[in-house]
Write a structure and sequence with these properties.
By secondary structure, the chain is an alpha/beta fold. The chain has six helices and four strands, in the order ααβαβαββαα.
């Protein structure tokens, strides 16, 4: 998959925390790897994921090739979520072998203890863009982080 040209960046980082920004961005962007590729994380993933059959949830998947590369490496039970309808529709069309669901990671709608692994490469970072002082965060930010972590903890299996 070819990388599209780098996106036009917002004037301030707060835009990264809005759904409107992502919908607009994903309308024009084909693919962008935010943090690291599967190849860069392969050794750690292979060590930490119990088996190729593990049920994996990727939160805030965006349009990064990470999940597709994970699938191509043999991890075939992957569920990808993002709150952008635009990106999920595009990824479903481009990669129908994987499961793509529109869902907010702050409100996971999965049963308890349903995933062996949850991967967030950089989705939580979008919360942090609203912060002026990460060392003294606002209560709303802290609540969102706890909410996300609580939902992830709830959907993970005992040894997840």
């Amino acid at each position: 998959m070819e990388m599209s040209s780098p996106p036009v960046l917002p004037r301030n980082n707060k835009a990264y925390g809005t759904q409107e920004y992502w919908e607009s961005r994903f309308e024009h962007e084909e693919s962008f790897e935010w943090l690291l590729s599967y190849r860069q994380a392969k050794q750690q993933i292979d060590e930490l994921i119990p088996s190729k059959d593990a049920l994996i949830l990727v939160v805030g998947c965006g349009n990064a090739p990470f999940s597709v590369d994970l699938y191509d490496a043999g991890y075939t039970n992957i569920v990808n979520i993002d709150y952008s309808e635009t990106v999920i529709a595009r990824m479903r069309q481009q990669h129908p072998k994987l499961e793509w669901i529109v869902m907010d990671m702050l409100h996971l709608q999965f049963d308890d203890v349903s995933f062996d692994v949850v991967i967030d490469k950089a989705a939580m970072d979008a919360f942090m863009t609203k912060e002026g002082d990460i060392w003294n965060p606002e209560l709303g930010f802290v609540k969102q982080v706890y909410q996300m972590c609580d939902h992830i903890r709830r959907v993970l299996t005992k040894n997840g």
